[in-house]
Every structure is written in C-alpha cells, then in structure tokens.
C-alpha cells in the first residue's frame, strides 16, 4: 500500500533533511536515521567539500533528492546544462525518486529563487505536465511534485489548487510529494478547508509527505520551516496517511535549526500517527470493518 | 533601467491563459514587479516600470481577499525576493560590507541586484558579477572603488575555491620527460591568482575573526557586559600583495607569494610554456628558489593538464 511506483516501490520510513549545521554530528556519531533528504542544488557543484560530505553520507545512509529550482511550472524549457548536472547527481546518490515543486520561479532565464504560485488553468497544467514528463525521461527516475504554500492567487485561475495538482499529476503520470504544512498554510491564506484538499487529490500517487513548522503573522501565515510542527498540521498528516497509506515522511526544518537530536525527536512524533494508520491498513482490521 | 536579461512584459496581464505564451506573459509581468527595488521602507515600489500605479497593475492578475489587497499580496513576494537575495550577498561578502559600512553596502547590494538579477539556478552564483558592477558603477563605492573591487574579487574567489572543479593533479612523473620549452601546465580551476594593492587577505581574516567573536559574545550577553571590543577592523593600508586563493584538503587557504612567483603562475595560466613562464619571472628569481616554489606548488596539487 505505501510503496508505489512513484517512490520506486521502496518502503522508506521517517527521514530528515540533511543540513549543514548537522554534518559534523552525523559524520561523527552516525545517528540512526532511516533516510536523508538532500537539496539537489547544494550538491550540483563541480567539486570541494559538499560532494565529499555527500559521499560520506552515502556510505552510511539512504538519500532522496529534493530540488528547488526545476520550476516545472515556468514557461521556460528545462535547461539542458542544469538537467545534465542533476542527472550526474542522480547517478551519484541513486535516489529512488526525485521531487521538486509545482510552481514557477524563473522567466527567460532570470531566477527568483522563490517558489511562486501557479495560475490554476488547463493550459498551465498541460504545459507543466509536459515538462515533468520531459524531465523524468531525461533523468530516468520517478518524479514526485510538491504542492507549495502560497500567499496569492491569480484572477486567471480556472480551478482549485487541488484540482490543478490532480490535473497535472494525472497528465504527467507522476507522483505527489504531499506537503501537509503547505496545505495548512494555504488553507488559512486562501480560506479553504484543508480536508477538501486532502480528499481531493489522487491518493495512490502520493509517494512522499512533508511536515514542517510555520510562522503566523497578523494577516497571513508564512511557510518558514523554523518551528516544531503544529497540532493542526499533525492532524492533517494523520488524515493524509489514512487516505494514502503509510508513506515516506520527511520533517523540514531549514531555519533556526536546533540540534540533530531535537529535529530527530520532532520527526519521530510522526510514529504516533503511523501506528494508527498501519492498524487501520492491516487486513484483519479491514475485514472486521467490512463485516 | 531594465534589469539585465529581462524581456519586456506585456502592458496588461492576459485575461485568460489559453496558451503557453499567455503563461509566459503573466510570469514576465509578475517577475517585473518583483525585481523592482523596494522603497526605503522596504515596501513594494509604488509604480510599475511604465509609470502606472503598482496597485493598478497588481489588480490585473492577483486576487485580493478580505485582509489583503492585490498589491499587499504581491508585496509579500517582493519582500521575500529581495530579502533572500540580499541575505545571500551579505553572506558572500563580509569583508566588503565591513569596509563600506552598513549603509553604503546595503545601497550597493540593492543597486547590484536591481541591475543584475540572478541568471543561475543556484544562489551560489549570485555574487559572481558584483566586482564587475562595482567597476561599471563607481558611484556606489566612491572614493573606495578600487579597494571595493579588490575585496569583491577576493571574496568571489573564495566561493570558487570552496566548490570549484578540481582536475586530476599532475604528478612529478607526468612531467619527468617533458622538455620545459614545450611543456604547458594549467592551474586548477578552483584557484585564483591576485596581485592587489592592499593586503586584502589579512583584512578579510580580521573581519571574519571579529564576526566570530561578536557572535560568541552575543551568546553570553545575558551573563555580563560585553567582553569583546566592538571596534571596527582598520582599513588595509596600501601594500602590493600577491595572493593565491586555493583549497587544500577541502579547506580554503590564502597563500601569499612573491612577485616573481606570481609572474610565473600568471604566465602558466595564460598558456605559456614552462620555460617561457620561468623566463617571465625575470632575473630576480634564483633557480633554486624557483625549484622550491614548484616543489611546493606540486605538493599543493595546483597543476593539471591544460
Ligand atoms: Fe515541503
């Protein structure tokens, strides 16, 4: 149930983001961690320390690549040099799947380094799906696209965000990296019911889940990844794995990063909900439920 | 001024997105709003590049809600854009920042990013054109433009030395039978040679040490008066200085070299033969000294095949 072709039929548990402040601890202490998510761009370099550290990590741990600059939703074509660099990293890490965001962030070769929201239109979904297929065929690895958090919506949109996500992944025949914190943040910023979102996406395509903390401002919520996960986000997570099955889960903590153990403990909280979802999934329980 | 690399956005946002061209038009429009420099209060620029009120333009594509207008929502993205990029240049150039002072440095960085938005998928390359910009627009750094340029070049070289490419190192065996009159050696791509009018290496080290002390002091601030001096690092005094920025065992190093050694390395980097390069050092370079230099450089792994 949890493993599907979008995460290459692997059965990954709870992972952590690999971050610079934790390098020394991880390399010295070799703490238990099911897998690490790396930001691909940090290792798409020509040499030096980043790749050296990565190789040491790869000797001990499983690594999954997560990108921030593919911009599947940009009108620009994927850059071949970028793709070639990414492919050589894919070969190095042997990532079972690769994720990046359902967003745009560059036009005509100028980059914002942000994850900008899409206009939810059929034309944009078609274009985005074509690009995902192109990238997947080039990299020869399954792709999961992640929903981003947003602070703005476009007049030009023709559907809801979750309809757009569904349209894109069905057209591209790719997986979803479901970020439940982003769903929560956007639901507050755009006043929709986050459970409508969770119920509205194709669950069999969910290859990975992100949980994270965020920051509440007076008039909007910013996806800052600098806090523990909030209760309503854990609730959404519990619902997500009830729907999608127990899925590879990653805690994102990118700013004001505490000790490795603190981040690890926070991530392990996901186990509370995983146990519940496992039970609900077990054949015995299902048989009882049916009866 | 149009930022370098940007294509003109449409005058109005497309009402419907029926094609890829419409999508591109909308994205060009939003990008054009984001790259417009913020006001002195860090608000979104009040006017679109063609002079129309930004609020009017934002309303063409961004939906308002009951808490935020279209332009408020666009402003969230504009601030994120500018803060992210400014932070990145700050991290890359502590020495330049210390030399210029906070106010001047901030104005320089904003002017730089306004002219040269990022053209790379990675923020690693964001400061790559800063030195060039300092030369092109000296008004942001005058009367210290030459020093600012030197520091900016020096700090960029650190990025290159940190994760630049390392090619297979030439060993003494590779060179054993090659006649010096024909032999050409290339320098590692991660290595940069400098002939500067200031000891910028010492200056940057002093600035970094001060920052470390400061951050340590701020951790103990609750426990007593600040023990560490807040004195600024004195500006470097003019002195011809030859430096190689490189890495060894994955660590960054600044190595001082002598003028003839600099001449040899520059000649090799320019593709001249070993014999020509040594010749370029002039008569001041004694043969045994040159041999010693080469032994060190070989050991440091500076040479690779051209
Ligand atoms: Fe995420």
Structure description:
The complex is a heterodimer of chains A (291) and B (306). By secondary structure, chain A is an alpha/beta fold. Helix content of chain A is 43%, strand content 18%. Chain A has a single domain (5-290), classed as TIM Barrel, CATH 3.20.20.150. In chain A, β7 (143-146), α5 and β8 form a beta-alpha-beta unit. Chain B is mainly alpha-helical and 306 residues long. Among the domains of chain B are: 1-92, no CATH class; 165-199 and 240-304, Outer Surface Protein A, domain 3 (Alpha-Beta Complex), CATH 3.90.930. In chain B, 48% of the residues lie in helices and 8% in strands. Chain B contains twelve helices and five strands. In chain B, strands 2-3-4 form a three-stranded antiparallel beta sheet. Chain B is elongated and about 80 Å long. The two termini of chain B are 41 Å apart. The chains are: A alpha/beta (291), B mainly alpha (306).
Report the largest inter-chain contact: A-B, 43 and 58 residues
Tell me the series of helices and strands of chain B, N- to C-terminal: HHHHHHHHEEHEEHHHE
* SSE series of chain A: EHEHEHEEEHEHEHHEEEHEHHH
CATH architecture assignment of the domain at 165-199 and 240-304 in chain B:
Alpha-Beta Complex
> How many angstroms separate the termini of chain A?
21 Å
Helical content class of chain B: 40-55%
Distance, first to last CA of chain B: 41 Å
What percent strand of chain A? 15-25%
Task: Sum this structure up briefly.
The complex is a heterodimer of chains A (291) and B (306). Chain A is of the alpha/beta class.
List keywords for this structure.
heterodimer; A: 291 residues; TIM Barrel; two-stranded antiparallel ribbon; 43% helix; B: 306 residues; mainly alpha; Outer Surface Protein A, domain 3; three-stranded antiparallel β-sheet; 5 strands; elongated; binds fe (ii) ion
